[in-house]
Each structure stands twice: as structure tokens, then as C-alpha cells.
Amino acid sequence: MASDADAGTMWIPLGRVKSVNIPRRELRVSPYAGKGQAIMQSEWLWIRMPDTRGSEPLRCAVEQTRPHHHEVIIRVGAGVPRDTVARMKTAEATASAAYLESRGLYEGRIWQDMRLEHEGGGYFGIVREVLELPAQTVLRVESADGGRYLLPAVEACVRVVSHEAKRAIVHDLDAFAVEDED
């Protein structure tokens, strides 16, 4: 367990800890809309403790996750003391935008106004709106030719090249793109 020292980190809220099982070092987390997959696939989570407003969240290794109805049970690593687990009730599970991006689990705000390019080169369009749906994030794209498309924000369709430069590559549009006619 360690703090992430980068004060400029963009923290993405993933869910709220509803209860804890202290002996097993388990957290029962209720994911926020569209965030269950990010929790299930994370090897690390950053827990913002309820009694530490303004400080960096605690970085915790994730030993195991399992779905439980509409929630996720997370077993945190042995490095997290049980007394710390006891204080995690009502805490918020978070992750940095950079971590989610590195795992292929993109946060919607990352996509806003991002420039999309074809895999072979050339401008495709720009993300004009991000739709946070329960199953996944969908991008409303205005293409270079004036068309509008809906693309799922999944790595099989679009891959971020540079978050800072707001640039991504689009792949296999035929399998995923839908023309947006409002």
C-alpha cells in the first residue's frame, strides 16, 4: 500500500465501498454507472478514505475480484493492514486516468475533443460528445466528410496514442461504427 505522489493526477471515481470483511481484507463495492468492468479488470485500485479529504488516495494491490449481484467483491493485497480495511467503509474506489488508459479501460473525459486518425494515416474526425452508457462508453464523432458516427470506446475500435496530444487511431470501423442520424 502506497500513496500515488503525483498531485497532477486525474482521479476517476469508480465506485463506493458499501461494506468490508476485515478478516478476509475484502471490500464490497457498488460501481458507478459503466465502471464495473474497470474495477473487475484492475490489478491496482486507489482508495480515497472517508477521513482523509484532500489527500492522495491509498494505492492497494487487488488480489481477486468477483461479481456479487450488482456489486464487486475486491480482496486487497496482504500489504493492506486489517485496521486500514476496517476504515474503508464508505470510501471511494478510484483509479488514475493514465492507469485506466494503460489497461484499455478508457474514461469518457479522456475522449472529449480527441482527434481520430485512420490506422494507415490521415484524419478521420473529432469526438464531439461522449455518451456514458451502462455497458460502455460511446463516442459521437464528426468525420472529416461531415458525417456523424457512433463508435464504442473499446480498444478493438479505437486506441489512444497520446492522451496529452488528444490523438487516437481508429481500427475496423465496419465492425463497430454506426451512422448517427439523431
State the main characteristics.
mainly beta, 182 residues, disordered N terminus, 13% helix, six-stranded antiparallel beta barrel
The Cα radius of gyration reads: 18 Å
Sketch the major β-sheet: 7 strands, mixed
What percent of residues are in strands? over 45%
Helix-strand string = EEEHEEEHEHHEEEEEEHE
Got a strand count? 14
Indicate the overall shape.
elongated
The largest sheet has its strands arranged as: 12-13-8-9-10-11-14
Unreliable residue stretches: 1-7
The assigned structural class equals mainly beta
Structure summarized in a few sentences:
The protein has 182 residues and is mainly beta. It has helices spanning 36-40, 82-86, 97-102, 108-111, 173-176; strands at 2-3, 11-21, 26-31, 44-48, 58-68, 71-76, 92-96, 115-118, 123-132, 137-143, 148-152, 158-162, 167-170, 178-179. Strands 12-13-8-9-10-11-14 form a 7-stranded mixed beta sheet. The protein has a 6-stranded antiparallel barrel with strand order 2-3-6-5-4-7.
Detailed description of the structure:
The protein has a seven-stranded mixed beta sheet with strand order 12-13-8-9-10-11-14. The chain has a six-stranded antiparallel β-barrel with strand order 2-3-6-5-4-7. It has helices at residues 36-40, 82-86, 97-102, 108-111, 173-176; strands at residues 2-3, 11-21, 26-31, 44-48, 58-68, 71-76, 92-96, 115-118, 123-132, 137-143, 148-152, 158-162, 167-170, 178-179. By secondary structure, it is mainly beta.
